[in-house]
């Protein structure tokens, strides 16, 4: 704890002062005329008010009761922001970027030591959701500080699709032209005997070409995989250092 030495300057009793009948009265008369001298280098006077101190008090600190900040005079009454300009702190902001300019004591315009906005949009977070560093609960993938990842849309690969079937049409080719068009181009010639109904002249199986019908809907397109969300802005400190009293 700092200790300040207070110098007591004795007062002057009036001419013709008569000693009182009791010592306490004498003590009171002496002390009421005494004064104390403070060494200004050992302490700082703090002025408490809602308005700016006069020019004669610019060597003192000012406790501004309108915003509860302590100011010093550096060409203007200024107070250092609690977060440095390189702070890693980020805030979630739901106002507009125009409103952000005047947020937290800032003002529109170019940024200077005591001018301009206090906060700005952190563009590194555009379109991104914050994720706590560590292992993901299902895959076990470990994320490190600053990692990025994830997709807003996903296209399934073959190994992502569950077992399923497709409806289709089989085509055969007849010698006499009963069915001569095979879009698949994979079927063998189908023979029919004049006097019977065997499937081929040698009673053997033949290949049939297969083409699936058009799938219902579309295929191969990305689909949304986003959770429900509400937008805002991640903001960070600008290079402005000081609040400036108005």
Biggest sheet strand line-up = 3-4-5-6-18
Strand content: 15-25%
| Count of DSSP strands | 18
How does the overall form come out from the CA principal axes? rod-shaped
Give the distance, in angstroms, between the N- and C-terminal Cα atoms: 35 Å
List the main descriptive attributes of the protein structure presented here.
246 residues; mainly beta; 5-stranded mixed beta sheet; 3-stranded antiparallel beta sheet; 24% strand
Describe what this molecule looks like in 3D.
There is one protein chain. This protein is mainly β and 246 residues long. It has three domains: 6-42, no CATH class; 83-130 and 228-246, no CATH class; 153-225, no CATH class. It has helices at residues 23-31, 97-100, and strands at 6-9, 35-38, 46-49, 61-64, 69-73, 77-80, 91-93, 119-121, 134-135, 142-143, 153-154, 168-171, 173-174, 189-190, 209-212, 223-224, 233-237, 242-244. The strands form seven sheets. A five-stranded mixed β-sheet has the order 3-4-5-6-18, with no helix packed on it. The longest helix has 9 residues, at 23-31. The model is unreliable at 176-180 and 197-205 (pLDDT under 50).
Task: Describe the structure concisely.
With 246 residues, this protein is mainly beta.
List the helices and strands and how they pair.
Blueprint lengths: L5 E4 L13 H9 L3 E4 L7 E4 L11 E4 L4 E5 L3 E4 L10 E3 L3 H4 L18 E3 L12 E2 L6 E2 L9 E2 L13 E4 L1 E2 L14 E2 L18 E4 L10 E2 L8 E5 L4 E3 L2
Parallel strand pairs: 3-4, 13-14
Antiparallel strand pairs: 1-2, 4-5, 5-6, 6-18, 7-17, 8-17, 9-10, 11-16, 12-15
């Amino acid at each position: 704890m700092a200790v300040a030495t207070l110098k007591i300057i004795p007062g002057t009793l009036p001419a013709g002062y008569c000693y009182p009948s009791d010592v306490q009265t004498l003590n009171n008369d002496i002390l009421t005329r005494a004064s104390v001298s403070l060494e200004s280098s050992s302490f700082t006077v703090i002025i408490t008010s809602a308005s700016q101190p006069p020019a004669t008090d610019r060597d003192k600190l000012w406790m501004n009761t309108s915003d509860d900040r302590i100011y010093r005079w550096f060409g203007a009454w200024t107070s250092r922001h609690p977060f440095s300009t390189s702070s890693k702190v980020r805030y979630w902001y739901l106002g507009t970027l125009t409103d952000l300019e005047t947020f937290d004591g800032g003002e529109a315009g170019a940024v200077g030591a005591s001018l301009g906005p206090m906060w700005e949009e952190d563009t590194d977070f555009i379109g991104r959701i914050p994720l706590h560093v560590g292992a993901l609960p299902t895959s076990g993938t470990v994320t490190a500080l600053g990692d990025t990842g994830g997709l807003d849309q996903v296209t399934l690969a073959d190994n992502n699709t569950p077992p399923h079937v497709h409806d289709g049409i089989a085509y055969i080719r007849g010698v006499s032209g009963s069915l001569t068009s095979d879009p698949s181009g994979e079927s063998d010639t189908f023979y029919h005997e004049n006097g019977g109904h065997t499937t081929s002249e040698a009673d053997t199986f033949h290949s049939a070409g297969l083409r699936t019908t058009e799938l219902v809907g579309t295929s191969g397109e990305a689909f949304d995989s986003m959770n429900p969300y509400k937008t805002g802005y991640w903001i960070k400190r600008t290079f402005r250092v000081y609040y400036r009293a108005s």
